[in-house]
Amino acid sequence: MPSTALRPTPEQVAAVEAFLAGKDLKLVAVAGSGKTTTLRLMAEANPKARLLYLAFNRAIRDEARAKMPPNVSVQTLHGLVFGEVVRPDPAFRAKFEAGNGQVRAYHIREALDIGVVEAYVVKATLENFLRSNLARPHPSMVPPQYREALRRKARDYQGALNEILEATRQLWERMQDPSDPFPLSHDGYVKLWAMAGASLPPVDGLLVDEAQDLSPVFVGVLEKAQSQRVYVGDPAQQIYAWRGAINAMDALGGEERRLSWSFRFGPELASLVEGFWSRVNRRLPLEGKAAWSTQVRVFGPSPVDLPVAVLCRTNAGVVQAALSLGVHRFHVQGGVEEVAHLLEDAEALRQGAPRPNPHPDLVLLESWKELEALAQELKDPTAGILVRLASRYGDLSVLAGFLRRAHGPQDQAPVVFSTAHKAKGREWPRVVLWEDFPPVWRHEEREGLKEKGLDLREEENLLYVAMTRAMKELYLHPPLDELLPDLDELLPMELGEPVEEGGPKAVHLGEGGPKEAGEGPASLLARLLLLLDRVGSREDVPEDLRREAQALGQEAWQRLA
Fold first, then answer.
1. Considering the entire predicted model, what is its pTM?
2. Do residues 236 and 5 lie in contact, with contact meaning Cβ atoms separated by under 8 Å?
3. N or C: which end of the chain has fewer CB within 10 A?
4. Which of 167, 165, 163 is CA-nearest to residue 155?
5. Helix orientation angle between 368-377 and 337-350, rounded to the nearest 10 degrees
6. Which residues pair with 417 in a beta bridge?
7. Mean predicted confidence (pLDDT) in 488-498
């Protein structure tokens, strides 16, 4: 073994030895287990081998380029194909640049002369087809939520489904035509490459990171490669089924090895995760090997240091968390515009004037009444949160304005809000998991998710990804507290501002508000708004007082914005 700054773990040693024996490998690596380090050890152990490291995105590529030895060439999967298909062809370059690598709903509306809803359905179906390894569109490529909507609304379900598939086929034909102005997307040029008999560079070995997120089209190409193949990934972090990724680790060949030691967190969090997997009848061996302990607590009357990351299941959950916690300076991972647009589009729906290109979460809805039905009958989390926000705060577009003004750079924000999807690949010293994660260990919740056509495994994986972003402290908001045994009665709480001088410090999160935080105007206003919110939503308060509190709260929010 080559010398490294840290001694390799027994699992890493076994993986390197299997690589040196020329075996195709499938490394199942848990969160924080040193995947890149393991691949570097392999490359250093055989310096004469010409290796190609294929990364899932630019961030992983840049990290690998900084760490890999000279015998390793590093590219993103899409970057490799772009150089083969688009860069050398002026016509395809023009088609790619026309949409900046994307096909949007308005491109489809213009191409097919169809309505907004139909365009979004065709767009999602086209994306799933392009990422598949099939030559023709198939009904399974129409996303489940759209198929359910068609069953409810279409007089001729099969006929409507066939129209979507035919529209998808037409767009694929136009995408392949160099003389047609219809845009060529990233997934489109990968599909072209695969169907034209894709070939990989002549190297001795392929190192494929984040292999769990490979689309079927990439799996098909990589499995035909003549080089030695090493796939590294975590099946439990596969959270992109909605965009065509499959559980690729199951579909890939190779001798399985494991990296089960996580250096991100301690044994306390590892125990929580293993307990969660046990509740949903899954098993993923995991050991917390960080040099520190990781405290796991209920998001209750405990002191919490700032800064902190608050992770949510949905964009609507990000809004709810930001408002509920009374924070007036924060950062939203990935930017605030997507969340703000969701609020503005929901308000337009509430006013009976839907906007022409609504947020994808609302595209199938024609009225606020439909959104309320979605919340009540199907228990949709996004719809439910939007209904509650409108009831408590009134005009949702006012909330969008508040979010835009409160959002700032991450290095200046005491609180970071993020969805679990956007948190993947990140880590924070302390993390709060918000209440909109579904309790997927409950039988009734699992049955409800199945009825809505949602992927149970992906919901489980999202919660795992969120839990494993924490390094030193993890706080579970009810109902996630059920994952911990022997809990005392919980109290509601909010986050307070850190004292400006001396940096972030512990603040008490309890009914009385932040005890050690600065009691400036922003903090007092946040507590007042939260008090009005609580009074206005409690059923044991007389109705006239509830209405008055709701009205005062709405007026206060409008003045604040």
1. 0.78
2. no
3. N
4. 163
5. 110
6. 310, 332
7. 38
